[in-house]
Amino acid sequence: MLPALPDGDERELESSEEGGGAGEERRPERHGCTYHGLYGYRRCPQQGAAGGDGSARSAEAHTPSTEDFSLSLLDTNLPAEAETELRSFIAKRLTKGALFEGMGNVASVGLSIPEGGSEKGLELFRIELDKYIQNLKINLDLEQKNLEACVSPYLRSWFEDAICPIQRVVQLFQDKLASLLHAALSYTPVEVKNADERTEKDISRFLAAASLQGLVQEGTMTSLCIAMTEEQHKSMVVDCSGPQPQLHNAGNNRFCEDWMQAFVNGAEGGNPFLFRQILENFKLKAIQDINNLKRFIRQAEMNHYALFKCYLFLKNCGSGDILLKIVKVEHAEMPEARNVVTVLEEFMRETSVA
Q1: Burial of 231 (0-12, 13-18, 19+ CB in 10 A)
Q2: Which strand ranges, in their side-by-side order, compose the sheet holding 190-193?
Q3: Predicted local confidence at residue 64, as pLDDT
Q4: CA 332 to chain centre
Q5: Residues 153 and 183 placed together within one structural domain of the fold
Q6: 352 pLDDT above the threshold of 70
Q7: pLDDT tens for residues 34-46?
Q8: Helical H runs in the chain?
Q9: Same domain (yes/no): 184, 315
Q10: Under 8 Å between Cβ of 16 and 109
């Protein structure tokens, strides 16, 4: 919000990110490859609006046009020509009514900048960008008289702060990333020690992005968090006092090991969009496995062969330990399904002992 602008509805309008050319590594330290533009939006009073008679002509009078609002540039690091192009693009979107207050928007726009076009992937970071803009609103409310000193540095670091945390965590944990993936998937509490503020926030953001929150029922997630806490009595501890984090009480399985390898293989290119896409694929595969197991369990309620299929699936999927805990919580109020889960738990225990 831009409360300093009177006489109308104010909104912050968008950051534009343009990256280096093809084959060029993207690193969070390279501020020259990221741009931003912050505009103040003010709706102009409509002349004769009260005289509408409900006719089609009156409705046309309320269609937005560039005369209905004004855009004022508050801060940017774009070249002058590119800034003009961005402002024109935003004005056209506003005229069409394509931007709404309180809703984030990701769009592609061609700008005249020296580095050329950027890779398109910001839609993968909608949640992070929404949170970043919410904090920007707070900064604007508090520091509207000191924009250059407080808000401008915040805007200049948007790419590093909102887009790159997953990349930094992958580079920090390397082959230990599997245990972090396991903790996120199993809702295991994680305690970070001896880390600087940015590293602690990065780990927290990675865990949030890697969890199935929003993809499984809220009640299931809450019950699973309680169950995991009661069962383990200990959080996974990440000690960042050395050059590489040391993990204590860490879990792991073959599923997370396989996906860790995908992250490590992608680390050579240093592409934060690739890491986020891998993370989304990781969650998608986990959800598919959960749904397959639930389908097998429904079949196993009436078919012993399907029960054996459940067992084989759990044994071969690589994440049977986590999947079984999730479906156990989901089927807690279903007696027949709960009995199937109990039998599967016994099978898995006997197999692990053997």
Answers
A1: exposed
A2: 190-193, 236-239, 246-248
A3: 53
A4: 30
A5: no
A6: no
A7: 899 998 888 776 6
A8: 56-61, 80-95, 126-143, 152-156, 158-162, 165-173, 177-186, 197-210, 218-232, 254-266, 272-300, 304-316, 320-330, 335-353
A9: yes
A10: yes
| Residues in Cβ contact with 108 at an 8 Å cutoff, skipping those fewer than 6 apart | 120
Residue whose structure tokens are 């279903």: 334
Question: Using one digit for the tens of pLDDT, what is the confidence trace for 89-117?
Answer: 999 888 887 677 777 888 888 888 877 66
249, 236 contact by CB (below 8 A): yes
Residue 9 counted as domain residue = no
Please indicate, yes or no, if residue 94 is contained in any of the structural domains.
Answer: yes
Q: Is residue 31 over pLDDT 50?
A: no
- Of 148 and 198, more confident: 198
pTM assigned to the model: 0.78
Range of the domain at 268: 166-353
Count: domains in the chain? 2
203 and 324 both lie in a single domain? yes
- pLDDT on residue 221: 57
Last residue of a domain, one of 110, 131, 162: 162
180 and 124 in one domain?
A: no
Other beta carbons less than 10 A from residue 24's beta carbon: 13
